[in-house]
């Protein structure tokens, strides 16, 4: 299970409750889950998820590792936002 929040107190409370109910281990900070690499920048509270290694593996399987990359721009009306 992976938990993420801006408030460490909430995570600690959840861990305490789960440990009381289930036989589990706390494995520490996650670097990878479901083949996604996770990168954090704690100061500003940023989080990045990357599937780059997975994509490279798929390209290799289909003999396309040497294919030329092309850009795929977002449409103009598409807006990214953070909650």
What does this structure look like?
- The chain is of the alpha+beta class and 83 residues long.
- It has two domains: 1-27, no CATH class; 31-68, no CATH class.
- It has two helices and three strands, in the order H-E-E-E-H.
- It has a three-stranded antiparallel β-sheet.
- The longest helix is centred in the N-terminal third of the chain and has 14 residues, at 8-21.
- The two termini are 22 Å apart.
- The relative contact order is 0.09.
- The model has no long low-confidence stretch (mean pLDDT 87).
Key features of this structure:
83 residues; flat; 29% helix; alpha+beta; 3-stranded antiparallel beta sheet; 2 domains
Could you tell me the mean pLDDT? Answer: 87
Number of helices: 2
Helix content: 25-40%
The outline comes out as: flat
Strand content: 15-25%
Q: What strand line-up does the widest sheet have? A: 1-2-3
Radius of gyration, whole Å: 18 Å
Poorly predicted regions are none
Number of structurally distinct domains:
2
Q: SSE order in H/E notation? A: HEEEH
What does the largest sheet look like? 3 strands, antiparallel
Structural class: alpha+beta
Task: Describe this structure in a few short sentences.
With 83 residues, the protein is of the alpha+beta class.
Outline the fold blueprint.
Blueprint (H helix, E strand, L loop, with lengths): L7 H14 L10 E2 L2 E6 L4 E5 L1 H10 L22
Antiparallel strand pairs: 1-2, 2-3
